[in-house]
Amino acid sequence: MAEEAYTSDDEVAEPRDETPTSEITYDEQFYPARPQRLRPRARLRDLFALRPRTPRNGRPSGDNPAYVAWLREESMLGDATAIAAQFSGLGSMWQNPYAHPDPRAAIDKASVWFTAYPISLITAPGRSFLGTLGDDDLWRAFEKIGIKAVHTGPVKRAGGLTGWDATPTVDGHFDRISTQIDEQFGTEEEFRTLCEVAASHGGTVIDDIVPGHTGKGADFRLAEMKVDDYPGVYHMVEIAPEDWHLLPRVPRGRDSINLDAETEDQLAKAGYIIGQMQRVIFYDPGIKDTNWSATDVVLGADGVERRWVYLHYFKEGQPSINWLDPTFAGMRLVIGDALHSLGDLGTGALRLDANGFLAVEKTTEGAPAWSEGHPLSEAANQFIASMVRKVGGFTFQELNLTIDDIKATSERGADLSYDFVNRPAYHHALATADTEFLRLTMNLALSMGVPPVGLVHALQNHDEMTYELVHFATLHAEDAFPFRGDEISGAELAVTIRQELTDRLAGDAAPYNATFTTNGIASTLATIIAATLGVTDLDEITPAEIETIKRAHLLLAAFNAWQPGVFALSGWDLCGLLTLPRKQVEPLLATGDTRWIHRAAYDLMDYQPHALHSGSQMPRGVSLYGGLPVQLEDPDSFVSGLAAILRVRKRYRIDVAEQLDVPQVSQRAMLVMVHALEGDARQVTVLNFSDEPISGSVLSEHLIPGAPVIDMMTDKIIGEVDDLHSFPVILDPYQGLSLLINPPADSA
């Protein structure tokens, strides 16, 4: 093994395949071998384009047949029915195994992801977002870095409809209302071209579906009018006219109003809704007091006026999908959308957004409804993930719930899960220069059957730096956890960690960051690090501090990349973006959504050096590192350092290794991870989360005495494992080491 480890990348032996050769594997049936009928050339949208379109004539209300017909043509459920018909009865639908998640097979095809955010990308002149992502030069840069997949983010039409007119998105295009690509991001043809360009560079494209909700588009408007089975798409209840007095008045200019807690309780007692949920996500007094809203009076296609109360886990403009309605209309809508993305556009994978909130059930009187960790959510996820595997793709989920929930859904559902467990913990380790809580979460996940190989370990994405710590704050609130020489409850632990994060990373310590309701802190990783360094004014950052930010940023990249699983990062990471001053996005902050400060526009390839904003009018942010072309020419740049980290990850297949140990450490700022590579070799990740040099010992029973310790970056021997299964290390501030430990020749 020692001799094999130091051959060139082309000479590294492939991992052993222990699967019987007679069995068709997920890996063999991945996208390049996908049955021809499911390749991008299917052009399902072209079929839709040939349909007669109803003109916009008359009043946009239920008594106008033309309006109702137009809504049907615009609806996602209508498209889903047409899309599904293109797949039924084909032998190719039975060529791929689909029962079991296979994270390692997914990782083999897409180990390192770039997470795009459509409205923040400064595009090439005259090109759309999708056209820019399909740029060969960009993919050549990605290849040099080691990026193998692009997650586009949501690019289909979103927001809502008021009459004939579209209304803007209320949640960054996660309030989907159509199967069609939003024109501001490009065309379906550009999306297909992107998929082909990615494939030519050995990569793939990841799209989004949202199983939890839609926006208030054609489907919701048809549901309000009680047309066909459209009400079955949503968790919505028709309120009898004699009980309209229980509902609040909808203000002029709006189409619905959030219920206060008292009204929620009254409607629950009247038998209409199941009332209070386990928690109110995005809780904001006077804006979102509950998870229920009431519509205004709506005239149905049958001439009847109705008012409805509907569920929305997230914002008022995101009505929740009902996965257990007798019509199964919601399920049909979601599956049709997934098939369109995989079978027609040509993507290789899908992200499942808001997929942990697919069921609600009444519990005992006076207790909150069962709305998280419900078996129906697990079943629904299995349906979605199995269908995606059946047509040759894979899925990952953003499930910010307990470790128990992540384990349950990963057994039959998505192939990969976002690492919500350790994400806030590694931020805490950086903020406090203490890895105790991070070691606690990593060992907890490992012991509960959620190994890192099944997780997507990410730097920044479009969301806030989460600190909900759902595992500790909800199901395990009363459990005892060892922490700082004592035992405290999960609830106390969550409060402590949240307080320390907000004290160090927001408020007076870092006024350029901002808390986002009760969910987390709106920030970039660069501003998280700046706050850790004591920077209070971003305009005063010195060149020396920028170098320290870069070094700490690379440490966090090493933490996420030098462990099994997927590694993901964004343009905000690659360019080192700072948060935007609040005044630049003041209108977007009006609803309390502070996340807009960390979604600044960035220019990956220096396409438009003088542009002040993206095509979607997001203001350009301050970049500490610059674009990719300049960085790739500079061996000391962030991107060059990142590429070196990813070369080690790829060469030694750390991404598909097995995590054996996250041991105790001799220095509070140190983190050690021990992984099993092919054969008997071990890889050890050692990290220093502080801005001071440290020295200590790496100790693990999985280390073999007498084995040499080799720095994977330099191929130099730096030590030897002693008889106590340990070896010493010295680390500079924010330094990370990836170490190879081969068994000595006489140990065989």
TrEMBL record:
NCBIfam families according to UniProt: TreS_stutzeri
Protein known as: Trehalose synthase
UniProt superkingdom: Bacteria
SUPFAM superfamilies: (Trans)glycosidases
InterPro entries: GH (IPR017853), O16G_dom_2 (IPR045857), Trehalose_synth (IPR012665)
Biased composition (Acidic residues): 1-12
Sequence segments annotated as region (Disordered): 1-32
